[in-house]
Amino acid sequence: MIEHRGTGSSTAGFGILFAARKSSGKEYFLTVMINTSGQYMIGKQAAEDFTVIQDWKRFDSLKRGYGVQNIIKVTLSGNAFNVYFNNVLAETFQDTIQPKLSTGAHGYIVSIPPTENLPQKFVEATFIE
Question: Which terminal CB of the chain, N or C, has fewer other CB atoms within 10 Å?
Fold first, then answer.
């Protein structure tokens, strides 16, 4: 997936969610987000709890700034997820938090902090599958 952010906070994350499923009316998914500062993070939403798997970390292959395009790719090999940015492997991780996720739906996610002052302030993020 190719994505870029045109406006908004430089530290707010945007990216993909994957291995998503619903159980007993509760949402579960894994997420990889990037920001315009060239950082990424990996997390898991398990019902009401969000757990950081990899906190914000700079990665040289991520393009920095507004309006630049970055490619995010996640593959599953056995029990391990491989995360690539612009076709360069950045991280390999396993979901060790119950319930463990490996397959499911996928989609997009945009983090909008309170400083964005919506709806008065416009935030733009573009995703190309």
Answer: C
